[in-house]
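#struct-help
A.M.: can someone run this one for me? Single chain, 110 residues.
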Amino acid sequence: MFTNFSFGTAFGRIFHTGFKYRDRTSIIGEILDTINSDPRGKTKTSIMRSANLNLDQVNKYLQHLQILGLIVSVDPFEAQEIARYRLTARGLMLARDAAIWRQSLHKKIV
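D.P.: on it. C-alpha cells below:
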C-alpha cells in the first residue's frame, strides 16, 4: 500500500526510497552508522570509503555534523590521518533512532 512512504514534510527525506541518487539524510545516516560501528571511532579515510564519498564531500559532512554536535574529533591536535571521529551522546541517539525507523519502514506492510 505505502511502498514509497516518505516523511517529506515532517522529517525531511530520511530514507532512500528508490531515488537514483542518495539524499543528504541517507548519507548522514551512513556516516553515523559507519562511525558507530567501531568503538574507537573511524578515520576520515574509512568514512570516505564506507559512505562512498569524495574528500570534499566528507569534509563538508563531517564539519556539519561537528557543528550540530553529533560527532566529535578525537585527537584534534594530531594529523588528520590519525584523528578519529566518534559519536556524541546526541549522535548515538540519532543513529539509533534512524536505525529503528529504517527497520520499521523496510518491513512489508500486509
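A.M.: thanks! Residues 89-106 form the longest helix (18 residues).
D.P.: also worth noting: The longest strand covers residues 71-74.
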